[in-house]
Specification:
The longest helix is centred in the last third of the chain and has 18 residues, at 249-266. 35% of the residues lie in helices and 15% in strands. It has helices spanning 23-36, 53-58, 74-81, 85-98, 109-117, 133-140, 155-167, 186-189, 193-201, 215-222, 249-266, 275-278, 281-284, 319-322; strands at 10-16, 40-44, 101-105, 123-125, 146-149, 173-178, 205-209, 227-231, 287-290, 305-308, 326-327, 342-343. It has an eight-stranded parallel β-sheet with strand order 3-2-1-8-7-6-5-4. By secondary structure, the protein is an alpha/beta fold. 35% of the residues are buried.
Length: 348
């Protein structure tokens, strides 16, 4: 399995369209993502068919910067930012050279088949296609792991999407908790959904992040996400529709560094005292000692004892055995009290 429940979080640097149609910029972003510690970069395989003619006629997109523009049309910007199969093939080869995984999100069956032909390790399905049975079933039939974002989706829609994948023969499903706002407010993120999706479906769960900053994806790492997908840019001020809510290289590196520390720190639920901790235990724990000189033949009272380091003598848990016992010898103040120093009254 590529994405077992206990795997180190697989960090996808989501380039998306942040290359702005410039393949030199795309290669630079691949280089930087590798330097930051990401496991993969991801592009988006859409073309002009992603929108209907009605949308192009309105010249309307999701962000305010893309409404009522006169210097270009929506169709023109989609054509400029789209990545051809030949571009994807070249980017895949470059990822191999750099040593980072290549991936891209398909939006129709042809684009999905192209990714399979390019040797993609998994298929990522965008939130908008949770209700697209044809694409989901086609993805399932590839035999590759399918990573499914759940933005926009109600639980019955996720149920149905999972069923389509299962019925199509998908052997490995990863669900990504996702809020499809750019960016969401903190109280809209609801990271506890990561636990909920894991409990309900039994599949590994990750997080597709649209928040700003590093705190939320780092928290998702601590939630045992197996995948963290984060939009990424070299410059938030750059022209384009996702740059403003994408992380910088510095932030991407911080997320990867946090992943490398947090994952091994989580450990497991079984209580284990590390061997290095065991070797220091006697130094830090306390033993029963005489709080004042105790005469031979005296009955030890609570006021006669105290608890002090080191922990090489009788533990405080043995107080009931010491208090009320009779001393076999005189015990000096601050001396550790041992079993050989006392006898129980019935045996005295």
């Amino acid at each position: 399995m590529m994405f077992p429940h206990d795997r180190k979080p697989y960090i996808i640097a989501e380039i998306g369209a942040n290359h702005n149609g410039d393949m030199a910029l795309a290669r630079q972003m691949i280089d930087v993502a590798k330097e930051c510690g990401a496991d993969a970069v991801k592009f988006q395989s859409w073309d002009t068919t992603i929108f209907s003619h009605a949308v192009y006629e309105k010249n309307y997109f999701l962000g305010d910067d893309y409404r009522d523009r006169t210097d270009y049309t929506l169709r023109q910007i989609v054509e400029e930012f789209a990545v051809s199969f030949e571009d994807l093939k070249a980017l895949r080869s470059y990822c191999d050279e750099v040593g980072i995984d290549f991936s891209s999100t398909p939006f129709n069956e042809k684009q999905l088949d192209d990714l399979v032909a390019l040797g993609a390790k998994y298929i990522k399905i965008a939130s908008m296609d949770v209700t697209n049975p044809r694409l989901l079933r086609h993805a399932a039939q590839t035999g590759l792991p399918v990573i499914l974002s759940t933005g926009f989706a109600e639980m019955d829609e996720i149920d149905r999407a999972v069923r389509w994948l299962e019925e199509g023969g998908c052997a490995e499903i990863v669900l990504l908790h996702c809020v499809s706002l750019y960016p969401p407010e903190d109280d809209e993120v609801r990271l506890d959904n990561i636990d909920m999706l894991r409990e309900v479906y039994g599949y590994p769960v990750g997080f597709s992040d649209h928040t700003t900053g590093t705190e939320i994806p780092i928290a998702a790492i601590a939630k045992r996400s197996v995948v963290i997908e984060k939009h990424y840019t070299l410059d938030r001020a750059m022209f384009g529709w996702d740059h403003h809510m994408s992380c910088t290289p510095e932030e991407l590196k911080a997320i990867c560094t946090a992943r490398d520390r947090i994952h091994p720190a989580l450990g497991g639920k079984r209580r284990i005292v590390p061997e290095r901790e065991r070797t220091r235990r006697d130094e830090y724990r306390r033993s029963i000692v005489a709080a004042r000189p105790i005469a031979k033949g005296a009955t030890v009272s609570p006021e006669d004892i105290d608890y002090r380091r080191p922990g090489t003598g009788l533990a405080p848990t043995m107080t009931d055995l010491v208090v009320g016992a009779v001393t076999r010898r005189e015990i000096a103040e601050d001396a550790l009290i041992g079993l050989n120093d006392i006898v129980q009254p019935d045996d005295a």
